């Protein structure tokens, strides 16, 4: 997979990593689901791409409300696995 194709995915990952580093610690552990919504979205973008990952993350955030039961909610298995760097950026197919 070309590095050019991975740019949108890695830009979204950079934004989420910054959010998880700066903003998320201010809220503490308040998510009703495991993994947290930001972690779920990050994993979805890493495994499924920017468009589908953002869609999956938005649906997850909509489900996360005070009346939700919560629990473990893992992302669906991807069609193909992606290799990630130590910082979480996608580097290509495994």
Q: Which helices and strands appear, and what pairs or packs with what?
A:
Layout: H1 7-22, H2 24-27, E1 33-34, H3 37-48, H4 50-63, E2 71-72, E3 82-84, E4 90-93
Parallel strand pairs: 1-2
Antiparallel strand pairs: 3-4
Helix pairs in contact: 1-3, 3-4
Shape assignment: globular
N-to-C series of helices and strands: HHEHHEEE
Strand content: 5-15%
N-C termini distance: 10 Å
Structural class by SSE content? mainly alpha
Instruction: Enumerate the spans where pLDDT stays under 50 for 5 or more consecutive residues.
Output: none
Tally of helical segments: 4
The major β-sheet equals: 2 strands, parallel
Helical amount among residues, as a percent range?
40-55%
Average pLDDT, rounded to a whole number, is 85
Determine Rg (CA atoms, Å).
14 Å
Q: Numbering strands along the chain, what is their spatial order in the largest sheet? A: 1-2
Write down how many β-strands occur, each being a DSSP E stretch of 2 or more residues: 4
Attribute tags:
94 residues; mainly alpha; two-stranded parallel ribbon; two-stranded antiparallel sheet; 12% strand; Putative membrane protein insertion efficiency factor; Membr_insert_effic_factor_YidD; cell membrane
Structure in words:
Helices cover 49% and strands 12% of the residues. The protein contains four helices and four strands; from the N terminus they run H-H-E-H-H-E-E-E. The protein has helices at residues 7-22, 24-27, 37-48, 50-63, and strands at residues 33-34, 71-72, 82-84, 90-93. The strands form two sheets. The protein has a two-stranded parallel ribbon with strand order 1-2. A hairpin with a 5-residue loop joins strand 3 and strand 4. It is globular. The model has no long low-confidence stretch (mean pLDDT 85).
